[in-house]
UniProtKB/TrEMBL annotation:
Keywords, ordered alphabetically: Cell membrane, Membrane, Symport, Transmembrane, Transmembrane helix, Transport
Subcellular location: Cell membrane
The species this protein was found in: Amycolatopsis jiangsuensis
Keyword Cell membrane part of the UniProt annotation: yes
InterPro entries xrefs: MFS, MFS_dom, MFS_trans_sf
Role description: May be a proton symporter involved in the uptake of osmolytes such as proline and glycine betaine.
Family assignment from sequence similarity: Belongs to the major facilitator superfamily. Metabolite:H+ Symporter (MHS) family (TC 2.A.1.6) family.
Domain of life according to the entry: Bacteria
UniProt-recorded name of the protein: Putative proline/betaine transporter
Amino acid sequence: MTAPAPPHSQPARATFAGWLGTAIEYYDFAIYGSAASVLFTRIFFPAADPVVGTLVSLSSFGVGYVARPLGGLLFGHLGDRVGRKSILVITLTMMGLSTVLIGLLPGYSAIGIAAPILLVILRIVQGISLGGEYSGAALMTVEHAGRGRRGFFSGLMNTGTAAGMILANVIFLLITRLPEDQLLSWGWRIPFLFSALLVGVGLLIRLTLRESPEFAEVKDEGEVRKLPLLEVLQACGGRVLLVTLGTVGAGIVFTMATVFSLTYGKSELGLSTSGMLGVLLPAALVIMVVIPVYGRLSDRIGERPLFLAGAASMIGLPFVWFALLNTGNYGLMVLGFALLFAGYSANYAVFPVFFSQVFPISLRFSGMSIGFTVGTIAGNAFAPTIGAALLDSTGGWVLIAVYMAGAALISLVAGCFLREDAPVRESIARPEVAAG
């Protein structure tokens, strides 16, 4: 067994482990989203009308998010019962295996209807594992970091979002240069199989971690809850709902910018996938730069003001983004993405600290997992499908921007009511504490 690292190195290791897990999560997210947007219609859903096929393919992207609450319930409960570390090893293994198996899956032409069915099943397994991944990684980072550094470490962890997305799209950009017959036969599999390398590194890092010190203290004091899922809903149900609503704005904005934009660029702007990625990827570097800055700022002024400022900015920025996108000018298009990502980053940077600290330690994994995973259904899951349907029905982008702005408004209102310093109801009685 790998020996745990010295205690003084644990905050950095926990942050890197969380960063790598988040990077892998969003790598898988971006790879699947890109493939569903431009390739899977022909590989797994070729029998459908082109428009219908695109909608069905993008819906398979959303299925993984629908499965997340199951993972959130399961791993949230186990994370509050047995600890954070072991759950993160399990979720990363599940996530990696399901992604690699997608890369090995025969297409519709080889096994017929079994191909899309197996694809959806693997997407569901992927979604279940993701249900506990982000919350667990966030808690390990936050609970290992000392007071006054949580925002910065959490911000560093959250740059994994952009790192995974950039890596995925660089690889996707490279494979799309292959001749079409090679791309559709074996080239599309490369990004999925590459995930195995990332998961292997992630597991090595996670096995060297100690358990979260805050959870270890709860365990030592005999405060581990017997039924954390039920208790968090009884004592903190309102906060779970607010976390859910607080998640949707950033989720929809990010998904529309990184997944739907590929479809929009192809159908409305006449850009190839590689052309659109050439606009998206440079702008995504903004996330890598500004999220740690926002995280450090949150250590000084608090997480809530930044969360609210980011949500407020995302109400207006979708209109600016589309307006700049439609100019067709490369520099202005990059600027549109950069502005949208800057507003998104202010909101997303503080998710780990802001959302985790509204729950007591003994119920934190359950509360955050339920709220965050349900929020991803309302936010990320079907945003590309909704965007494609709105575009097909209206022929324009205005209602799509309204949809994105409305989601940001919901998150803004939720953030106004969600306070990390609110006292927890004393209905979490000691008789409900697990024995031993």
